[in-house]
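Late entry, written up from scratch paper. The run itself happened at the end of the previous shift, but nothing got recorded in the book at the time, so transcribing now.
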Amino acid sequence: MTRDQSGTSSARSEDHASRRAYLLGLVSAACAFGVVKIALGSGLSESESQPRDVNLDVAADQSNAVVGIEVSSPVGQNPRDLLVTVENNTLSSATATISLDDPADGTLFGPGRDTGSSVTFSLPLGASESVEIRSAVNGREKLPFTIAVRSPEFTFEAQRKTTAVRRAVRITSLAQFVSTPEQNSWSVGGLRIRDNDADDDLREVEYEIADSDGTVRATRTDTATGGAHRVDSLMIDPDDPAYDVQSGHPYTLSVRALDADGNYAQTSRTASSADDSAGGESSTAASLE
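Output as recorded:
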């Protein structure tokens, strides 16, 4: 009986030591990055289970980092750009929070539907997730943000910066989108696009029209050149000649403008028919660059 109890105690000690060594081994293998707060988990003795602050090295650029972080730079050339990717290499699932140091710098978009100046999301063991940003910084400036990752084992927080640049392509106006069932088509008007990085290399404009179910009913690609593109009036027909444009049916137009460098701007607008075109703006129409 004594042997069994001693063996169990020894096994527990080995398990705790192995668990601690694994976590510390991951950390010590990395380069200097931030401060990790280790809280040794349940199952340890009362004195061992008390959280303790420990300064440890964490790496963003090594595969065995406790928290892998890859910051994208620059951001802001497109309506939504990748800001940061976070990878969880801890011992359990974690929760990550990305926050702009200045909420006025833009809007973050988390892996789910969370948006705002700060987003929080689950980070399963071994998984990586990305956060995008729509930058409000108009110019080549530093954009600071904070990364926090919390798991039962530790709390990690670090400050990082990226470079925000002026958007290379801008859609400055999309005045009209209506369906015209009597002509079995859709009408687009008042579209204005501008090259915004002084190299005058607009390449093309893509149009896509979808019904309320998300089914794409029409597509079109037009060539754009130089530093500006203007469309006063354009008729777009269904891709399938057998399809009938329906009166009163809500259709959504998506417009994407690209330059030769691959930069782009995009926006969308929803309308039913010419009779209600005045109220046919989509909620994203206000996001014109």
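Confidence is low (pLDDT under 50) at residues 1-57, 276-289.
(Scratch paper discarded after transcription.)
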